[in-house]
Specification:
By secondary structure, this protein is α+β, with helices and mostly antiparallel strands. The chain has 3 domains: about 5-180, Beta-Lactamase (2-Layer Sandwich), CATH 3.30.450; about 195-305, Beta-Lactamase; about 310-378, Arc Repressor Mutant, subunit A, CATH 1.10.10. It contains 14 helices and 12 strands. It has helices at about 5-25, 30-40, 70-75, 85-90, 100, 110-120, 150-190, 215-220, 240-250, 310-320, 320-330, 335-345, 350-360, 365-375; strands spanning about 45-50, 55-65, 95-100, 125-135, 140-145, 200-205, 210, 225-230, 230-235, 260-265, 270-280, 295-300. The strands form 3 sheets. The chain has a 5-stranded antiparallel beta sheet with strand order 2-1-5-4-3. A 5-stranded antiparallel beta sheet has the order 7-6-12-11-10, with helices on both faces.
Length: about 375
């Protein structure tokens, strides 16, 4: 068992702090941070995790010394039933968790996490960690696990180490959040700026409004078809709002969605609502807190002749559903069936069945023939 004196902890802290600063500006990566940590505490594994507990989704992970099979199962399942998550959740930002002192693994012996994931790995029952940043949608923590036999040496050493790197981690989180916020604002503005003939709003998975065009803002102010309640998008019709919320969440997280287009009646006006994902790749420096998945929501009065497009006239003539119209729009934009399925977040089988239904309704048999029919309504 390795022993650590103050000089050794200072050396490790300085080296890891430098690696954190490099990762924070995109000149390094977070895997180097966890690798340096695990190698400095031999026989341990280290992980920096950003977890969205609301969506059972990992926003970021960097790990070292976890075997691939165990890592895969952690990422897909055990990360979300980790019994230490609530313990981290109760800590303040910068708070320390020394498991043998606060929440030892033996207190979780009957959990799936311990029996099926931690115990089979052996030698990792003890650990020390720090909550770096916290909210239900992006709680960041740093955990280093080791054998309980090494607690007398590793526990105090890791506590001193974490205290030393609090400053660099706070700077890294603050910078990542600033970069991600700027990316989200830029993506939102770019998505709505040219939408001059319809209401356009960009939201996150929870319908929090990121940006909106002038038509949508006017609707908010007039308490019209689209409304803003406490910064979240809301439709007056409860059933439509429920379907919208569910569809937005599914599209944001890349899941198959039942409805990517909705026909909603507001008073005597019918609105066709389209949903589309906006993917924003994390810029250098934002990996720790990447931009949120966003969804573009477009709505327009389908009975207003000024807003009638060739495809909409084609759709009305053949009595296509909103989802079938959206699929035709993707084909008209040049997508293959596979590409249209990916863009609309539906399976390839669903896409093929949707195309078959469109063929039947339009009395066509091939995509080229379908395209000619659509163009005839131009």
């Amino acid at each position: 068992m390795k022993r650590f004196d103050e000089a050794e902890i200072n050396r490790i802290g300085a080296a890891v702090g430098e690696a954190i600063d490099l990762a924070a500006v995109g000149a390094g990566d977070w895997d180097a941070v966890t690798s340096l940590t695990a190698n400095s505490f031999p026989g341990s594994y280290a992980a920096v995790i950003n977890v969205d507990s609301n969506a059972d989704r990992l926003n970021h992970y960097s790990v070292c010394n976890i075997l691939p099979d165990y890592l895969d199962s952690y990422l897909t399942h055990y990360a979300f039933c980790n019994p230490w998550l609530p313990v981290f959740g109760r800590l303040p930002s910068g708070g320390l968790l020394i498991s043998e002192e606060i929440a030892p693994a033996r207190s979780f012996l009957d959990t799936e996490f311990y029996q099926d994931w931690l115990r089979p790995q052996r030698h990792y029952d003890a650990g020390a960690g720090m909550r770096i940043h916290g909210s239900p949608k992006d709680m960041i923590f740093w955990a280093t696990h080791f054998s309980p036999d090494w607690q007398a040496s590793y526990g105090p050493a890791l506590a001193a180490f974490y205290r030393q790197i609090r400053g660099p981690m706070k700077r890294a989180v603050r910078l990542a959040r600033q970069i991600s916020d700027a990316q989200e604002r830029g993506a939102g503005r770019g998505a709505v700026v040219d939408r001059l003939d319809r209401l356009a709003v960009v939201v996150d998975a929870n319908l929090a409004i990121v940006d909106a065009n002038e038509d949508a803002l006017a609707s908010f102010q007039a308490a019209g078809f689209m409304r803003s309640l406490a910064g979240r998008l809301h439709l007056p019709a409860a059933a439509a709002n429920s379907v919208l919320a569910q569809s937005v969440r599914q599209i944001a997280f890349g899941k198959a969605v039942a409805f990517d287009s909705l026909l909603v009646t507001h008073g005597e006006t019918r609105f066709l609502v389209h949903l589309a994902s906006i993917r924003v790749d994390a810029a250098p420096g934002a990996a720790l807190m990447p931009p949120r998945p966003l969804v573009l929501i477009l709505a327009r009065d389908i009975d207003d002749p000024r807003h009638s497009t060739a495809l909409e006239r084609f759709s009305r003539h053949h009595q296509l559903t909103p989802s079938e119209l959206r699929f035709c729009e993707r084909l008209a934009a040049g997508d293959s069936v596979k590409a249209a399925a990916a863009h609309l977040a539906i399976s390839k089988n669903t896409a093929r069945q949707r195309l078959k239904t469109i063929f039947q309704k339009t009395d066509t048999n091939r995509q080229a023939e379908l395209m000619r029919r659509m163009l005839a309504f131009g």
